[in-house]
Amino acid sequence: MTISLNNVGKRFNYDWIFRGVTHTFSEGQQYAILGHNGSGKSTLLQVISGHLHHNEGKLVYTHDGAALEQEYLFRHSAIAAPYLELVEEFTLQEIFDFHQTFKRFIPGFKPGQIMEAVGLEKAVNKQVRNFSSGMKQRAKLAPAIFSDVPLLLLDEPCTNLDAEGVALYQRLIAEHAMQRTVIVSSNDPDEYNFCQQLLRITDYK
């Protein structure tokens, strides 16, 4: 998956969050969008993901050598972000079952194996409402990282994770994501230290 931005800008009402973003996210590379809280890095990630519409400029998505319309990007991408909530009434099993109606997991991995990989195998039948904040974050990251898609988008992926959870996240990325296009929105080096390229949102104010 390759994503090209040409003079992309986003505003809310009359306030520009960023303007003039021209950058190419190349296939199989890992990127970090950096900036302090409230700087607009999450907004840029949401524009890239198609969750928000940009106000100026152009985005071009290319997959397997062919142009991809933004409305179909969801089929080829996975995202984990603080503003994307889990269904509190679902059990973990139901979360995974629902996810699989949209996306397959990496070949060779079944839901039970993925739950075990993130330390949630004992919570398979527990409702999300009864999860700790750290368990919820693991339940967000697991389906995203293990989705069989070429584009992985992560916004502050270690939110609510303790040191053990951060180490788990880093290991899962190293084992399952380094051949894909990965874009991380963060201001915490523990979340993006594997990224080869850094994009600072403050350069586009």
CATH topology heading: Rossmann fold
Helix proportion range = 25-40%
Structural class, by secondary structure, is alpha/beta
Number of domains: 1
Per DSSP, the total helix count is 6
Q: Could you give the order of the helices and strands? A: EEEHEEEHHHEHEHE
The shape, in one word, is: globular
Distance between the terminal alpha carbons, to the nearest Å? 27 Å
Kindly state the number of beta strands.
9
Which ranges are low-confidence, i.e. pLDDT below 50, for 5 or more consecutive residues?
none
Task: Please report which band the strand proportion falls in: under 5%, 5-15%, 15-25%, 25-35%, 35-45% or over 45%.
Answer: 25-35%
Mean pLDDT: 96
Q: How does CATH name the architecture? A: 3-Layer(aba) Sandwich
CATH superfamily: P-loop containing nucleotide triphosphate hydrolases
Question: How would you write the strand order of the largest sheet?
Answer: 6-7-8-3-9
User: What Rg is obtained from the alpha carbons, in whole angstroms?
Assistant: 17 Å
The largest β sheet comes out as:
5 strands, parallel
CATH level 1 class label = Alpha Beta
Structure description:
The protein has 205 residues and is α/β, with parallel strands linked by helices. The chain has one domain (2-204): 3-Layer(aba) Sandwich (Rossmann fold). Helix content is 27%, strand content 28%. The chain has helices at 41-49, 92-100, 111-117, 133-145, 163-176, 189-192; strands at 2-12, 15-25, 30-34, 56-63, 66-68, 77-80, 151-155, 181-186, 197-200. The protein has a five-stranded parallel beta sheet, sandwiched between helices. Strands 2-1-4-5 form a four-stranded antiparallel beta sheet, with helices on one face. Helix 4 (133-145) runs parallel beside helix 5.
